[in-house]
């Protein structure tokens, strides 16, 4: 089923000059880049995107990390785009992410794990609304 998902290259990915290599992986898989924009995440967008994590021990660090510098916001589409993108990203902790995945190849720690991707079609719709209002 053709889906859209929200992808965000986090500030460490931009700072470390990995935009091109990471975006290439989505295109190489056959997915379509529908929109792509370099921008700063506002505190309001950060809080809305990560509402499910409010109150957790890592929450404050997560909000300051995601607002610490420019990100690349993308809408990516294709068959099962949500699940395919999560597979290309690898699991949350780069320590456990397989080599060949984006987090496995470009990340080292949970605190700076390179990339965000929606975890369901419903999250994708919500997150696209937050970041491309
Ligand atoms: P996900 O990004 O793979 O969907 P979530 O559990 O939704 O993972 O967590 C959202 C983000 O919060 C992670 O990508 C990571 O940046 C951060 N995070 C999650 N758990 C921890 C933690 O235990 N320590 C530090 N940061 C964390
Ligand atoms: Mg998540």
Quickly describe the structure.
The protein has one domain: Nucleoside diphosphate kinase-like domain (Alpha-Beta Plaits).
Describe the structure.
With 133 residues, the protein is of the alpha+beta class. It has a single domain (2-131), classed as Nucleoside diphosphate kinase-like domain (Alpha-Beta Plaits), CATH 3.30.70. Helices cover 41% and strands 21% of the residues. It has helices spanning 11-15, 19-28, 43-49, 59-66, 81-89, 102-106, 121-131, and strands at 2-9, 32-39, 71-79, 115-117. It has a four-stranded antiparallel β-sheet with strand order 2-3-1-4. The longest helix has 11 residues, at 121-131. The chain is globular. The relative contact order is 0.26. The structure holds inosine-5'-diphosphate and magnesium ion (MG). Inosine-5'-diphosphate is lined by residues 53, 58, 62, 92, 110-111, 113, 116, 119.
